[in-house]
Amino acid sequence: MTAAVATDNGVGATRLRNGLVDLIQTTELNGVVIDIKETDGVFLPETLKDFISELHEDGIWVIARIVVFNDTVAARANPEMALKRSGGALWLDNRKNGWLDPASPEAWEYIAGIGKKAMDYGFDELQFDYIRFPSDGDVKNIVYPVYDSKTTPKYVVLKSFFEYLNKTLRDYKPDIILSADLFGYVATQASDLGIGQRIEDIGHNFDYISFMVYPSHYYAGFQLPADLVRGLPAVNFPYRSADIKNVASNRPYEIVHRSMLFASDILTGRKATSSLVGANSKSAVATNATTTAVIPDEEIKPLSRSRLRPWLQDFDLGADTSRGIYYDAEKVRLQILAAENASTSGWLLWNPSNVYTEEALKLGW
Q1: Structural domain contains residue 45
Q2: pLDDT band at 122; cut points 50, 70, 90
Q3: pLDDT per residue as tens digits for the range 57-70
C-alpha cells in the first residue's frame, strides 16, 4: 500500500484503502506493507498512527517499507553523503533519482533514525528496500564521497550496514522484526551483481528475507542445475525465445519454487555457497554445472537464521503483454503455491497500482 493510499482522505484513496483492508479480512492475507519512505522523501503523518491502530484492532500485521539508498530528497539536501559526478553535480540514475553513498556513516544514521520513528508509530516490522548500490545509469561515472572501490568490495559495505541496522534498531527495540528486500537473482547467484547484495552476507541480521522473484524481471534468463535430492531437473528459461512457453515470465511456478528451495538450502547450510550459480566462473548468470553439491547432515552449519518470505508478481509488464503473457489469477496463484510448496514463511504480493487479484486468493478465511 502506497503512503498516499494509506493516509489520503480523497475518494479514490479511501476506496482503495478500504478495499485492501476488506481483502485482508476476507482472504488468507493477514498483513500489509505500507510505504513510508521513497526516493521522494519520508512520509509519516500523524494520521498514520490512527490507521495503524485500526489495522491492529483487526489483527492485521503492519510493515513499514523503507527505501534506503535511493533517496533524491536527502541527496539534494545533504550533498556530503550523495553520489555525484566528477564536476560536482548530483549523479542521477535512469529514472532521474539521486542516491546516497552506501558507505556513508551519516546515511546509515539517517536511515536508522527513520526506522526508530517508524517503531514509535507502532509498526510491527521494518522492511528495507533498495538496500544496495545503484544499478541503472552511467554507474562508471559515479563519484562516491566515502566508498572506495579500490580498497573495499561493495558486498563488504552492505554486510557492515546489515550488521549496523540489526544492532542499532534492536538496541532501540529488542523485539522489532526486521526484513530486507533483495534482487531475485541474489537467491541463486554467487556474484554481488555489481550492487553489493550477496546471499552469504545476510547473516543473522534480518528475521525475513524477501527475494523479489518476479518472473518478468529475469532479463538474463533463469538457470539452475539439477536438484538430485528432490529429483528436480536442471532448468534454463530464457528471457526471450521463439518458444514462448519456456520464457522466464511464462514459468512462474518453477522460478519461485526453485529459487526458494535453492536459497533455503544455502541459508540453512545444506548446500555450500560454492553451489551458487557462477561461483566458479566470471559470469553471474551462466553455469555449465548440472548438479550441486549437498553437505552431509553431520557437517551442516547454518549460514543464517533468516526466514524466506518472497515478493510475488501481481502486475503486468508491457514487454510481456505485447507477446501475450498476462499475470492473471492463474499465474499469481501458481507463484503462491510455489512459495508454499517450498515451505517459505509466507509471501508478499506487489502491484504498484494497489489493485490485487482477488481471484488468486483463498476466500472465507
Answers
A1: yes
A2: very high
A3: 999 999 999 999 99
Task: Find cell 542516491 and name the residue.
Answer: 99
Q: State the pairing for strand pair 235-237/222-224.
A: antiparallel
Report the number of distinct structural domains present in the chain: 1
Burial 80-108, CB ≥16 within 10 A → b, else e: ebbbbeeeeebbbbeeebbbbbbbbeebb
- 202 contacts 238 by C-beta, under 8 angstroms: no
> CB of 117 within 8 A of CB of 172?
no
Q: Which domain covers residue 155, as residue numbers? A: 3-212
Look at residue 305 and tell me if it is in a domain. no
pLDDT of residue 283: 41
| Residue 266, in any domain of the structure | no
Q: Is residue 280 part of a domain?
A: no
Separation of alpha carbons 15 and 207, rounded Å: 33
Asked whether 124 and 60 are in contact (CB, 8 A), the reply is no
What are the angstrom distances between the C-alpha of 194 and each of 15, 75, 186? Answer: 41, 21, 11
Max Cα distance, the chain (Å) = 60
- Please choose, from the candidates 215, 238, 130, the residue with its C-alpha nearest in 3D space to the C-alpha of residue 180: 130
CA atoms within 13 A on the CB side of 27: 16
Q: How far apart are CA 98 and CA 318, in angstroms?
A: 26
Query: Which single residue is written with the C-alpha cell 549460514?
Result: 303
DSSP per-residue letters across 310-356: -EEE-S--HHHHTTT----HHHHHHHHHHHHHTT-S--EEE-TTS--
Bridge-based pairing state of the strands 41-42 and 31-38: antiparallel
CATH code assigned at 126 = 3.20.20.80
**For residue 159, what pLDDT is reported?**
98
- Cα separation of 179 and 223, whole Å? 26
CA–CA distances in Å: residue 269 to residues 39, 126, 262, 265 = 36, 26, 11, 6
Distance CA(196)–CA(98), nearest Å, equals: 18
